[in-house]
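User: ok so my PI wants both of these folded by tonight, can you help

Assistant: No problem, let's get them done. Here's the first:
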Amino acid sequence: MAARIPGEEDRSIPAQSSALVVQLMPKRRKHLRSVTRIETQVYTKPWNASLFMSELALRTKRAYTVAQVGLLVVGYSGLMFVGDDAHITNIAVDPIWQQHKIASRMMLQNVRLALKAEATHLTLEVRVSNKAAQALYQKFGFVPAGIRKNYYAEDNEDALVMWANDIDSDAYALRLSAIEASIPGATISEVPK
């Protein structure tokens, strides 16, 4: 029997995604153990708890979200605000919860938070080899804008820079509505004031 992290439920996935209820909320200190557990599973050079704490301290310039199913943190994402741009700093889903639209839910939340901060454009970097993530971002209107050579220092992989422009437009709102309608189950979203 595998040891469980105190305070977390069983990490097993419900049989039907239509029964899934995901809660999105601001990341807090109490989530750090779960976030770093996911971070070490999905990144070759993971951030540590201290780095996440320093990011959380930048409240007016950053917004971090966790996705929970019950008490279990299954994903997290972060945004950095610079002028009328919002930069997605990270997005990660526990590997056993991938393919359940957790990342799509967090992307929708990222857009909501960016709009709340009066951003009109979103940007991010993604590994050139990560085709699944690129496909997700393309659904959200991101288009390639350039390459950052050797961006990922641990293996010298290039990053594809992607942008989504005019996220405050009616056309973009329709795109988001279509994405939201395609997600099974329920999402309970808490957007901070």
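One down. Here's the second:
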Amino acid sequence: MKIKYLISAIASLIFSLAASAQSLANYQGSWQGTLNVAGGLKIVFHIKDNGNNGLTATADSPDQSAFGLKCDTTWVAAGLLTIEMRQMNASFTAKLVGDSALDGTFKQGAELPLVLKRAGAAPVVRKRPQEPQPPFPYKSEEVEYDNTSLGLHYGATITIPPGKGPFPAVLLITGSGPQNRDEEIMGHKPFAVLADALTRNGFVVLRVDDRGIGKSSGQFKDATSADFADDARTSLQYLLSRPEVNKKKTGLIGHSEGGMIAPMVAASSKDIDFIVLLAGPGIRIDSLMAEQNAAILRQAGITTHAIDAYITMYKSACKAILSTNDSTATPIKVKGLIDQWAKNTDPAILTELGLNAAESHEKIANGMVKELQGKWYRYFLAFDPAPYLKALHCKVLALNGGEDIQVVASSNLTGIESALKKSKSKIYTVKELPGLNHLFQTCKACTVAEYGQLEETFSPVALEEINNWLNKNVK
């Protein structure tokens, strides 16, 4: 599943607390450092005078090609600088060391040490050569439509091939986290690239802003995957209402969580001829997330014994968190579980994992509880895709990148194929694409941080695989 990136689209609301102009001047400037996650993630804060005896800040995440993002609040009190990012439920608190460093902590569920130093280099804007640019050899139309029963309004783009229809058609379904219609991430627009390739191949394509994002109404943070499935059903009905669409050759393409939602919609619909799952889950999500954690730790150089020990604790903690809604008692329960696990674990392993101190147990317990007790995550983590895959009766293409560390290909594709063998789907292909990551980019280091560093948005090999399968089985 797509992970919650440490810096993303941040709301623009400025609020400052008073401090002396002289002391505030010491914090002004650009500050940069590296978070020790996912192979290292560069963070830059640009702090300025807000003109009202206070401070304002913007943030960059160069590795994600995200620049000039506004932070919610920035202030100095009791000798500490605090920058809040409410939409991400994140903050940075630090003490000024001399005039050249900010030594502090970045919090987002877990707490991570972060030291920033003064910087003056301009951000590097990375190339995205695959991003489609007009004029297009097809019609591209901005559309809006409603679901009156849900009280929601949706904004989308529909692209239509030239010539006389009706044409085969497809709805694109985004992955986890708030996504716009292009599934924009780290400066990439995967769905814009995918829609362009599909439309050039003769398909009508509808791509939609998630609820609460772009021109779509509603609240994203209060929704679950089941709600997003309702959104997809609404968009499917809009797509089927278009006169350019061949209603007998209409399908869904879902990426990551979207690849979980597609079978949810298709299993109960007679209108869907095919689905394409791009890193869509094929095993229980709690198992998938454990594999994701293990893959990321392995990539960070953690030993197998330490990973195995951590995953044992992680699974137990998840089970404990999902078994109760008590926000007061649960962190205490999980910390006790971690404390007991630590007593029975080799001290060398605890040191390797950074969990050899009681305070670290409390931090990880609080972080996990805060994350997993959210409405979306509780539904997501308890989800089993198998019943929906077994209930399918349409054509299916399931692809996974061989270097995907968020949805590990081997076990995931095995799970999908096993379920499809028990379904009514007579035509299906399950395939691993070597050398590709979770975004279906040709990767090198194949870390999450590398997503934004790569110029390639969507592997041409993957695009060709999808179009070839559609040409053979749908057209």
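Residues 1-22 have pLDDT under 50 and may be disordered. The chain has three domains: 21-119, 139-284+383-473, 285-381. Good luck tonight!
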